[in-house]
Amino acid sequence: MFLKQPILNMTTLIILLCIGLLAGILSGMIGIGGGIIIVPALVFFMGITQLEAQGTSLAVLLLPVGILAVFNYYKAGYVDIKTTLIIASTFIIGGFIGSKISIALDQNMVKKIFGGVMLLLAIKMIFEK
To answer: pLDDT grade, residue 1 (50/70/90)?
Structure first.
């Protein structure tokens, strides 16, 4: 099943370029970008569904988009390869399971879960010492 493709006019192209640039900058600066930036931006600015936004965000991350940022952190001694490989191996399994669950749920429920997770994380980060 193929999803409806947005009409790629100049406005759409500029919005997508801005989303990618902002996600890349924030990913390089503070390690966020995919779900926290791309998903809400696609939903709010492009008008696509929550599941389309999540699928698109995952497709962006499928390619080595962060390789240059990772290289800089690695050169500076801030990448633990063993930890990375362990998390990546289980992330693959978790991503598969999570996508199956998400696709089976109502889109509004998925959006509420997404927002709730972001809210809880924000509260914890703001108020922790």
So the answer is: very low
User: Does residue 63 sit in helix, strand or coil?
Assistant: coil
Q: How far apart, in Å, do the first and last CA atoms of the chain sit? A: 47
Q: Is the pLDDT of residue 24 over 90?
A: no
**In this structure, what token pair is assigned to residue 37?**
């930036």
- Token look-up 């490989």 returns 85
**CA neighbor of 18 nearest in space, from 40, 35, 34, 41:** 41
Burial class (CB in 10 A: 0-12, 13-18, 19+), 6: middle
Where in the chain are the domains? 10-127
Residue-wise pLDDT tens digits, 84-117: 888 888 888 988 999 999 999 999 999 999 899 8
- The CA distance from 51 to 43, in Å, is 9
